Amino acid sequence: MVRVLLPLENDALFDKKQVLLTERCLSRVYDIADNEEQDDDELLNSMLRTSRILHLSETEIYFLENGDDGPTSPLNEIRAVSSLCEFLSKASAQFSQRRKRTRRELDGPVTSRACSSGNEECSCSGAVEASELIMSRNGGASRAFDILERLRIRLQDLLNGLGEAQMSALSSEVGVACKNWREVKLQEWATRQGVISKIHAAEYRSTGRGAAGRVDIEAGCVILEVPRSLLIYSDTVLHSELGQVFRMLESPFLEENDKAILWTIHERYNPDSFFEPFFAALPQTFCTGLSISEESLTLLDNTFLLAEIMQARELVRKRYNRLFPVLSATFAEVFPQDLFTWENFLWAAELWYLHEIKVHFPDGQVKACLIPVGSLFNHSLHRVDQLKVQDCYKCQ
């Protein structure tokens, strides 16, 4: 028997997801039996239902109905299948390596070997006998390995099918490579800084700015590699020109999110900023509930979404009113009132809301980052296993 434990990344929503798993009698632990009675379809369906729940976003959890096992959304389905396929591929490879290692240990000349089964003593003196010993004693494990392989192959086929379905749905709208000089400048700057990318900026008729592949991209391949020096996160902010001022202003007056927003406004309008090409390529306006027009809000009357939007807008407005005009009065040269306006504060807040990506760092911490070029991707704020800072100080 082989025991499989579906991976759990640092997830602020896991408690809610655990409740959903319990309600559906699902578990992260699966035993791949060493007999032929276990049904592949039943096992795969159960693992896939679990993976869907583990990859739910906060919004998807909010609207999930009782007993709904999915698919919840096209994005959730792709993540659930992709993650499970990747995990089983790794598990299958590790299992195969262990089997090979065991064979090598048994293939050499052996005069005597104590077997773990009872008090039986086994004697063999060559490769043939050793191979037969593995097959006879690990036959069940071989069947479990075969099951893992069958599940992996089926998931890969399913993932390919999902990709083809997505491409078919989007076939009427192909992204056109951006010729805007700001986008071209961003790509050139990123390349000079060591970014290795399989994508480029593209315009889509229905959704606007996004990403398109430079080449055919297979499932599981690394699409983007970004040097750590290009990541924008808490350390970037603290080591900037504003860092000394931020260290003078203790929490709770100035929270981490506030520092990120203030730094963003400062850098956006600084022509000498190292990140100037990144900020120059960003849209001048965003389409989120924070900046939605009053006319559009009337269409949401008597909905939960309207209440959430109004609550979020009020929260951001309170944050701004707490900081200004106090900061402008205290540090007039650092936070001039004509630059740190409500409109600029709202734009910076929307930027982080839309493009913040959670990244694993080598010390085990998960930090919110803005990633030049990476901002072209659609992504979940709670998906943290796609992007990791490697020992070579690159983000993949």
TrEMBL record:
Q: Which organism is it from?
A: Chara braunii (Braun's stonewort)
Q: Which domain of life is it from?
A: Eukaryota
Q: Which InterPro entries does this UniProt record tie to the protein?
A: SET_dom_sf, SETD3_SETD6_MTase
One Gene Ontology molecular-function label = protein-lysine N-methyltransferase activity
Designated name of the protein: SET domain-containing protein
